[in-house]
């Protein structure tokens, strides 16, 4: 069976490298590449697997990217050089099949793509440690509306502005924020300040991770 693979990567050299790796693999066909998930899906949704970089230039979060791909039935394998555990956990939470570092050998990368394209899990020590070893992975169970308020407020908007953007009453926004803080505190992830809420939103993938060139 020949599996159809797409790449979401904004570094041309990485795309060329993966293309070369797969060129001699008769069961793996690279059919599309794009610098963002949106652009890949505009090209095709007929894929068995998307190989996704965690940090893209458009500022999108790993969680939102994986969810967008899974909505159209495309599974995801993360291929990254980043060491940021927040990014790995965010992608893992969204349901990726595995995480492979760009420093791995050619054969390891090919084997991982082949396994994931066939629907199998690609479990690495680093990925397992990032997921299982972090108590911050406890889900706070935010509703879609609470998530919307958190995203706006944690990104820098004032509560009054959040109320205008969401159509909620100012007191309702404050009630939401109080409940959000309570939920985080209940799972051992306190967020008493706006900065703390920003950190929690980053950890959970609700906001894009700021670009850190040194982690490339």
UniProtKB/TrEMBL annotation:
Keywords: DNA-binding, Phosphoprotein. Gene3D superfamilies: 3.40.50.2300, Winged helix-like DNA-binding domain superfamily/Winged helix DNA-binding domain. Residues 4-117 form the Response regulatory domain. One of its GO terms (molecular function) is DNA binding. The modification 4-aspartylphosphate is found at residue 53. PROSITE patterns: HTH_LUXR_1, RESPONSE_REGULATORY. This is Putative transcription regulator. It comes from Rhodococcus wratislaviensis (Tsukamurella wratislaviensis).
């Amino acid at each position: 069976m020949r599996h159809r693979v797409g790449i979401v990567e904004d570094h041309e050299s990485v795309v060329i490298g993966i293309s070369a790796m797969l060129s001699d693999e008769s069961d793996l066909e690279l059919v599309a590449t794009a610098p963002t998930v949106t652009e890949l899906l505009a090209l095709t949704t007929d894929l068995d697997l998307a190989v996704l970089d965690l940090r893209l230039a458009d500022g999108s979060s790993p969680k939102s990217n994986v969810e967008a791909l899974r909505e159209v039935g495309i599974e995801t394998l993360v291929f990254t050089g980043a060491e940021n555990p927040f990014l790995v956990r965010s992608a893992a939470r969204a349901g990726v099949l595995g995480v492979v570092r760009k420093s791995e050998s050619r054969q390891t990368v090919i084997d991982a793509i082949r396994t994931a394209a066939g629907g199998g899990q690609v479990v690495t020590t680093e990925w397992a440690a990032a997921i299982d070893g972090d108590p911050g992975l406890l889900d706070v169970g935010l509703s879609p509306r609470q998530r919307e308020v958190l995203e706006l407020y944690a990104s820098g908007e004032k509560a009054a502005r959040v109320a205008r953007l969401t159509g909620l009453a100012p007191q309702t926004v404050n009630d939401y924020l109080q409940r959000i803080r309570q939920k985080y505190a209940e799972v051992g992830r306190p967020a008493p300040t706006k900065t703390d809420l920003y950190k929690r939103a980053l950890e959970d993938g609700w906001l894009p991770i700021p670009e850190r060139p040194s982690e490339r």
